[in-house]
């Protein structure tokens, strides 16, 4: 008997990850340089790890409140007020989650009813569409383009608006493009959300990773947006804490109560060890975080110059740790480029179509790896590109 027919339709409806296949090929090979993974190459700073060790020594091994440690919620709220002048109640408007991943899933399951449409600027993080589908909604990709530096505009969104549109899901700084929205651009999006009474889920996990003259604008700090926004953030990228699995959501008390209702039955709470470490990250982690950001910025310049010098069109990413060069002048599709590069030059990157159709013709490279590896990867990519460029 085949069990696959008994798997629920919503799970069957999810497309397999376009990234996995390349990791599987790379795993069989030797001497591969990976620009594929979206994960800091730094170890979590010692003072953060030490706070966790100390917590364990003190016997902090139990569940916390469903919403998370109050002192962590207070630290999150304090920093948002300091950095973005937006004020939340730590007791009613914050939920600590198992990474932004859980917060995203909870937010969507809380506000999406069957058949609701969720607008998602594309190219987008691979989990967005899958989580919308699992929540019973329809993900509607809204293409952005290199001409517009992959920023979303109201004109783009209007083309995809229908009476079923209920939610706008945005993620800036963006994975995979590195795009950062300007405040003016987001103000237009905010007016659009208000005019059409949309709930906005804003994934700001890369908020601390912005470079040059770019500034991160917190969506819920925009006029009239706090009440209709579910703001998501976490520790994975800013503090090199991917394996700790810790993030959070901020929203109006009704949304947070509803999300907590799901969370209390599915997770109970985020791990106490990670919550203790997160308090330390927010209290004393800023200077280490800034050092990591400065190092990403150095690598960003190196990889941007390298890509452009070998003849690939490349928009300057202003945030996150990804670069999204256009490979159309090689005559190869994104998947052909990624697979042939991997097999012939042993460099792993991700084909742009893994992030939606509008990613076709591009590849995503992560520069969360050492300068020496980036330099060697650039040499290898150039070897490959030279043979194909037209
Ligand atoms: N959101 C975006 C845009 C991401 O790129 C990632 C991870 O790559 C996540 C969310 C998941 O983050 P977390 O580790 O906090 O679950």
Automatic annotation (TrEMBL):
Q: Is Magnesium set as a keyword in this record?
A: no
Q: Name one GO molecular function term.
A: transaminase activity
Which Enzyme Commission number(s) are listed?
2.6.1.-
Pfam families to which the protein is assigned, alphabetical = Aminotran_1_2 (PF00155)
Per UniProt, the enzyme's principal EC class comes to transferase
Q: Indicate the family of this protein.
A: Belongs to the class-I pyridoxal-phosphate-dependent aminotransferase family.
Q: Write the protein's name.
A: Aminotransferase
């Amino acid at each position: 008997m085949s069990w696959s027919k008994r798997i629920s339709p919503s799970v069957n409806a999810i497309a397999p990850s376009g990234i996995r296949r390349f990791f599987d090929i790379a795993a069989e090979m030797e001497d591969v340089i990976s620009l594929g993974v979206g994960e800091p190459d730094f170890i979590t700073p010692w003072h953060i790890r030490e706070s966790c060790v100390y917590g364990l020594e003190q016997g902090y091994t139990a569940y916390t409140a469903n919403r998370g440690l109050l002192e962590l919620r207070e630290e999150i709220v304090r920093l948002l007020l300091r950095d973005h002048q937006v004020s939340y109640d730590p007791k009613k408007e914050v939920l600590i989650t198992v990474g932004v991943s859980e917060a995203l899933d909870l937010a969507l399951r809380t506000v999406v009813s069957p058949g609701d449409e969720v607008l998602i600027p594309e190219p987008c993080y691979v989990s967005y569409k899958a989580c919308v589908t699992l929540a019973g909604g329809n993900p509607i990709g809204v293409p952005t383009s290199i001409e517009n530096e992959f920023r979303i505009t109201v004109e783009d969104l209007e083309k995809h608006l229908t009476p079923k549109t209920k939610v706008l899901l945005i993620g800036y700084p963006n994975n995979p493009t590195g795009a950062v929205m300007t405040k003016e651009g987001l103000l237009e999006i905010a007016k659009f959300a208000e005019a059409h009474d949309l709930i906005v889920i804003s994934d700001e996990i890369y908020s601390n990773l912005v470079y040059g003259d770019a500034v991160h604008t917190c969506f819920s700090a925009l006029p009239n947006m706090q009440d209709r926004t579910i703001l998501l953030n976490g520790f994975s990228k800013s503090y090199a804490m991917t394996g700790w699995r810790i993030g959070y959501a901020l929203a109006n008390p009704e949304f947070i109560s509803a999300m907590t209702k799901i969370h209390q039955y599915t997770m109970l709470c985020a791990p106490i060890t990670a919550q203790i470490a997160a308090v330390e990250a927010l209290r004393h982690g800023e200077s280490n975080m800034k050092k990591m950001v400065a190092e990403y910025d150095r690598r960003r310049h190196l990889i941007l110059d390298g890509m452009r010098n070998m003849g690939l069109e490349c928009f300057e990413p202003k945030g996150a740790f990804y670069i999204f060069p256009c490979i159309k002048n090689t005559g190869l599709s994104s998947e052909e480029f990624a697979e042939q590069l991997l097999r012939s030059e042993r460099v792993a990157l991700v084909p742009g179509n893994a992030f939606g159709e509008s990613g076709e013709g591009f590849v995503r490279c992560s520069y969360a790896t050492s300068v020496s590896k980036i330099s060697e990867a650039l040499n290898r990519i150039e070897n490959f590109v030279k043979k194909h460029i037209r």
